Amino acid sequence: MTAFDGIGGAYAENLPVIMISGSPNTNDAGAFHLLHHTLGTHDFKYQIEMARKVTCAAVAIDRASDAPRLIDHAIRSALLASKPAYIEIPTNLAAAPCAPPGPISAVLAPERSDPDSLAAAIDVAVSFLGKKLKPMLLAGSKLRAAKAEKAFLELAEATGYAVAVMPGSKSFFPEQHPQYIGVYWGDVSTKAANNLVDWSDGLLCAGTVFTDYSTVGWTADPKGARIFTADMDHISVTGHDFSRVLLADFLSGLAQKIKYNDATMVEYSRFRPNPTLQPAAEPEAALRRGEVARQVQSTLTPNSTLFVETGDSWFNGVQMDLPDGARFEIEMQWGHIGWSVPSCFGYAVGAPNRKTIVMVGDGSFQVTVQEVSQMVRLHLPILIILMNNHGYTIEVEIHDGAYNNIKNWDYAALIETFNAGEGHGKGYRANNGRELADAIAKAAANTRGPTLIECTLDRDDCSKELMSWGHWVGAANARPAAAI
What we know:
By secondary structure, the protein is of the alpha/beta class. It has 20 helices and 16 strands.
């Protein structure tokens, strides 16, 4: 059942994960047996019923002859929806013979937009945007799931519009591109992106998701007649709604018809903030959050993928400038603490040639620390920047209480436990900037296993962005009940 947590996260974050689970022998239900690994009842269907809540397709194979059809259906559903699917196979059927599946094209063939709906949606978008004086683009977290990043870039360059991204889609549009104006996140936006987004009279939102977290407690929630929404498979604007229009097809088709209008870039040039360089701290001064972020920023390359854990790591990472090619992973929708450690492990297995870095708080780290042993076992050179501020700082800023305190660990020494005399993981503790720089240099030389750097921080040392965001999210959570 613990796997359902990850599957729920994959559903929320639009990730096509295939979960394959065993189930009881097909004879046990009719025999009214009680079995281990169950709820101790004669009902064995509850697991697939639970799976249906967190997947786009859940199938149970009760006869071997049904396997080709049901497995193809589950996999194709996951690929098309970019959501997880669940396949349940009884213990006595796993090796049972069945007919071979048909051509793989039945599973992999892409879905097509309805041509008439696509053409009509593009025409409406051309008319809508053509009447705006200050149109711009906003990229959302579903852009990648829709395989529409390339089409979005094509549209941006065809329009000349300013481009902002939401925090869940950081790195989906190149940050070194001249039309990039930062992360739109209300009061905690980067590069003053909120000034332009709030000022624009026409906002094309591509794959966007507006939640209490992404809108900073509903204080930055674009809506109304100025909003044109392009979702993964449908298009909507005031007075119009088109289904069976795939996002990539729509963006690419619109790029062929739209007129160039760089008014928002001209306006942005008037208030674009000057780049500010974070000064290096005194080498022996007590380590601060800002110095950790500055040094992590200096490690980023086009080949880097930066994971930021739920917490202050969100805000540290969102503020960083990504070189072209660098990727950024954040779990903004599901928001599960502890997700980054197992996620970066899986990512490093699947993308061994990329440089994987994770920023994680001590509280989150304690939830899924066991996955570090897998990094040691598979010799994965993941860099773990562990922010040790003795508790759940993000929760402190939303709603403080004794429950946000945790037992401190010797995190740097913990790596030797996972090594068990044979692994090549490294653990270091940094109390100041010099020690952190030395540890990062040693991590770069360790290609045979993970390196964990425990950064000792004051409990109250967090970003001003977290403080502002926490205030507004806390206020939204504490709204009194509406009268009925």
